[in-house]
Each structure stands twice: as structure tokens, then as C-alpha cells.
Specification:
InterPro entries: Glutathione-S-Trfase_C-like, Glutathione-S-Trfase_C_sf, Glutathione_S-Trfase, Glutathione_S-Trfase_N, GST_C, Thioredoxin-like_sf. It is a single chain. It is built from nine helices and four strands; from the N terminus they run E-H-E-H-E-E-H-H-H-H-H-H-H. By secondary structure, the chain is of the alpha+beta class. The chain folds into two domains: 107 residues, Glutaredoxin; 104 residues, Glutathione S-transferase Yfyf (Class Pi), Chain A, domain 2 (Up-down Bundle). Strands 2-1-3-4 form a four-stranded mixed β-sheet, with helices on one face. Helix 1 packs parallel to helix 3, helix 4 packs antiparallel against helix 5 and helix 4 packs parallel to helix 6. The radius of gyration is 18 Å and the shape is globular. The two termini are 29 Å apart.
Length: 233
């Protein structure tokens, strides 16, 4: 049993995509990030960066004590290795998958996240910041579009955790001010993943929760006002 600490954000969706694809038994524990549940001491005990998703594996491969994993990229790698699925065994192909996984966690996710922040959540609309992150998101879409030319999936013929990492960050493309028609290879890949039964099931899970936090002054402080001094110790 995998205990998944989750909220329906792009990083949360990454994990339900893999769990559904791999048919792993799991239980969702919602972490309402707009209400500050990510700062509860029991959650911080295994997710010290006060971010979801995080998991607890109650049946680790070594048969020992439960294992907690935080950070979405690390969770994808852990579950892929645990199940022997969606991550090639040979070094050359595994290298490609991990390159593009790290590209997402170090580039596409943070840049699209800043796009979301300045375009949607920031109390003050700063044209330079908005344009900066819209343009960088656009550049990254272009990188992925080029990568997908002549390939079914990011790493080649096989669907992998690299695809699962990237797809949820393309879902809000309209909010990111991106037109998928400008990226035909990316659009073809995106449409194919959207139709996978596991993708449909994963996104149906989100219907049980708020599609996004309600932004009030209080929730804004919770989401965007944390420093080292006011995080629970």
C-alpha cells in the first residue's frame, strides 16, 4: 500500500499518473495547501520541504520499515524502480529518461510555476515578470516540441516517467498563455497521453478535491508568504 499525500496540482498529478499506470494499490491523503495543511508537524516529519506530493511506502521492497519519499521527481524514480516499470533498465536509455525528468523538475515545472504565480496569483500584475515567464515557458515548450519530432514519447517508443513528469505541466497551457497549435509534435504527444485510460482515471481523482485552492488574503499568506522564521519547527 502506498500512502499518497496529494493535492490536485501538476506535481500531485504526476504521482497519480504513475500509480494508475502501474496499477499500484494506494490511498490518497489530501493536503489542502490553501489551508496550510502542508505545515502540520506530522507531515513535515517525512516531507521536510513542506510541499506535496509525498508518499509513504508501507511495503518496501526490502521488507523493512515503511519508507517516506518527498519531491515529485524522487517519488517517480522510487516507484518506477520499485515496480520495474516506466524506467529502462539499461544505462543508455535510463540516462535519457532521467535527463528529461530532471529537465522537467529543474526547468519546465519551476518556470511554468512562476508563469502561474505572476499571471494568476500575484496581487500586483507586473508586466515584466509576466512576460519573462510566459516567454521562458514558450521556449521550453519549443524544446519539448523539437524533442518529440519523430518520437512517440519523450525518451523514444516507450511511455516513461519523463512523460508523466511533463504532461501535467502542459495541461494548463492556456493559463500559461501558450497555444499548442504552435507546437504540433507536442500537441500530438499531449493528445495521445490525455486519451490513456490511466490518465483519465488519475485526473478523475482530482474531482474529489478542489481544482485549485481558493485564493483569499489568508490563503495567499499561507501559500506565498512563508520564510524560515514562520515555518513550524
Amino acid at each position: 500500500m502506498i500512502e499518497l499525500y496529494y493535492w490536485p496540482t501538476p506535481n500531485g498529478h504526476k504521482i497519480t499518473l504513475l500509480l494508475e499506470e502501474a496499477s499500484i494499490d494506494y490511498r490518497i491523503h489530501p493536503v489542502d495547501i490553501g489551508a496550510g495543511e502542508q505545515f502540520k508537524p506530522d507531515f513535515l516529519a517525512f516531507s521536510p520541504n513542506n510541499r506535496m506530493p509525498a508518499i509513504i511506502d508501507r511495503a518496501p521492497a526490502d521488507g523493512g520499515e515503511a519508507i517516506g519519499v518527498f519531491e515529485s521527481g524522487a517519488i517517480l524514480l522510487y516507484l518506477a524502480e520499485k515496480t520495474g516499470q516506466f524506467l529502462p533498465a539499461d544505462a543508455r536509455h535510463k540516462k535519457v529518461v532521467t535527463e528529461w525528468l530532471f529537465w522537467q523538475v529543474g526547468g519546465l515545472g519551476p518556470m511554468a510555476g512562476q508563469n502561474h504565480h505572476f499571471g494568476t496569483y500575484a496581487p500586483e500584475k507586473i508586466p515584466y515578470a509576466i512576460q519573462r515567464y510566459v516567454n521562458e515557458t514558450n521556449r521550453l515548450y519549443g524544446v519539448l516540441n523539437k524533442r518529440l519530432a519523430g518520437r512517440e514519447f519523450i525518451a523514444g517508443d516507450a511511455y516513461t516517467i519523463a512523460d508523466m513528469a511533463c504532461y501535467p505541466w502542459i495541461v494548463p497551457h492556456e493559463r500559461q498563455q501558450q497555444d499548442l497549435a504552435d507546437f504540433p509534435h507536442l500537441k500530438r504527444w499531449f493528445d495521445a497521453i490525455a486519451q490513456r485510460p490511466a490518465t483519465i482515471r488519475a485526473y478523475a481523482k482530482a474531482a474529489d478535491f478542489a481544482s485549485r485552492p481558493t485564493i483569499t488574503e489568508e490563503s495567499r499568506k499561507i501559500l506565498f508568504g512563508q520564510t524560515a522564521q514562520n515555518i513550524p519547527r
